[in-house]
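note to self: the first set is below, dont mix up w the second
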Amino acid sequence: MINFIHTYHFINYIFIVVMSALITSVAIPSILHVARARHLYDDLGHFRKQHDHGIPRLGGVAIFVSFIITVLAFGIFDSSFSPSYLIVPSIILFVTGLKDDLSGVNSSTKFIMQIVIALILAVPGDIRLTSMYGVLGVYDLPYVLSVILTVLVMLLVINSFNLIDGIDGLAGTTGIIANGSFSVLFIYMHHYELAVISLAIVGAIGGFLRFNITPAKIFMGDTGSLLIGLVSVVMAIKIIEIDKITGIVNATDITSMPALIVAILIGPIFDTVRIFIVRITNGASPFVADRNHIHHRMLRLGLTHLQTTFILATFNIAAIFITLTLGALGNFTLIAVIFMFSIIFNWAITFLIRSKERHGLALRNLFI
C-alpha cells in the first residue's frame, strides 16, 4: 500500500510538470503571433541588450497563465496555506510586469508595488521569517522586525531574478534549479500541497525554455522574472519556517535549512549584492543599469549565452552540494562559506578577464 501511494504521488508530480509545461508550450506560439502582428518587440536601442533583432518579451504571460491554471487545477490546499495569499500578489505583480514589458513602468512604482505585495504576504498571509536562525547569534524576532526582515528578503529575491534575466536561459534555468530543489524538500517534509506549487512553476518555466534557449525566439520579460522570484522566495520562506517547527530535515543532520536555501538561491542573490556594492563603491546609484553583472562579464570572455548559463547553473548546483556536505557547520558558518565560494568564483572570472585583456596569464592579474 505504501509503495502504491508513493507511486501515485510520483506519477501525479510528473503529470503536474508535464501539464504546466504543455500549457506554456501551447500558449507561446500564439503570443509570438500577436507580438509580431502588433510589433511588440524588445528595446533594441538599450545598451544592455545582447541581440540584434526584435524579440518579443512576453514569455512571462505564458508562464503566468500556466502557473495559475496548474495551481488552481491540481493544488492541494489546507488551513495552513491559502492559495489567495500567493495568487493575489502574483496577479498584482503580473499586471505591473506586463505594463513594464509593454510600455515601461517607473522604477519607484515597481518598488512600491513590490513592497505592497511583500506586506500582503507577510501580514495577512503570515508568510514571514520569524527568526534569524542563529545568524549573528540572533534567533527569534519580534513581530515588527520579523515583518521588516521578510519584506527586505522578498524584495531582494524578487529583484535578483529580474536582474539575472540578461541572457538566454539563465533566469529560467535558475528558477528550475531553485524550485526543483524546493519541491524535493517539500516532498521530503511531507508537504505535498507546497510541492505542487514548486512543480507548477518548474513546468511553466520548462515549457518556456524551449523557446528561450539560444537562439531565443522570446524573452520572459519582467512578467516572468518577477513571478519566478516571487514564487521562489515564498517557497523558500515556507521551507525554512516548516523546518523550524517540525525539525524534519535538521533532525537527520542533513544540513542547516536557512543556509541550504541561501545556497539554492545563491546565483541571483550574490550577483545582486555584488552589483549593488560595486555601484555604490563607484559612487553610482545601485539602481542604475549597467553591464557589470556576472553573466555580462562571462560574455566578455567570449563565452556564448548557453555556455554561460551552463557554467552558472553548475556553480549553483555545486554550492548546494557543498552546503549538504558541510551541513553540520551551522547556518552562520555555512552562509559565510557559500559567499566565500561565490567570491572566489567571481575572482576567477576577474582574473580571466584581465588575462584576456592583457594577452597573457600573470599573478598580478589576481590583484590589479
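second set (the one i keep forgetting abt)
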Amino acid sequence: MTTATTAPGLEPSPPSKGLHVSLWIAQILLALLYAPAGVMKTTQPIADLAAKLVWPGALPPALVRFIGTCELLGAAGLILPALTRIRPGLTPLAALGLATVMVLAVPFHLSRGEMFALPIVVPLGVLAAFVAWGRWRKAPIRPRR
C-alpha cells in the first residue's frame, strides 16, 4: 500500500486568518438577515406578508412557510455547527441551501417583473455561495474531538 505524499515545499498552505474572519463575518451577516425573514415567513399571516412583500400572495401558503422554514434552519446552520464545532460540515450545506433558495428566487422575481428584488437576492446568493465554497474547500472548521 502506498501513501500519497507531496514534495517538500509543496504542502498545501493553511487558510489565512483573513479568510476565516471574512467567512465568519459573512456567516453572521447572512444569519442576521435570514433568521428574521424566516421567522416572519413562518409566523405571520399570509395576508400580512402579502401586504408587505407582495409575492407571498402569489404562492401557496405552504410554500411560503416552507421557504421561511428553510431560511430559519439555514440561518441556524450557518452559525451553530461552526460555533460549537459539532458537525461543522453542516455549515457549508446550510450555505448551499440558502444559495439554492436565492438561485430559485431570481427567475421567480424576474417572471413577476420584480426587478427591485434582484439587488437583494443576487448578493445574498453570492454571499451564501462564498460561505459554502469557503467552508467546504478553503477554510473548513474542524470538528470537536
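remember for set 2: Residues 17-138 form one domain.
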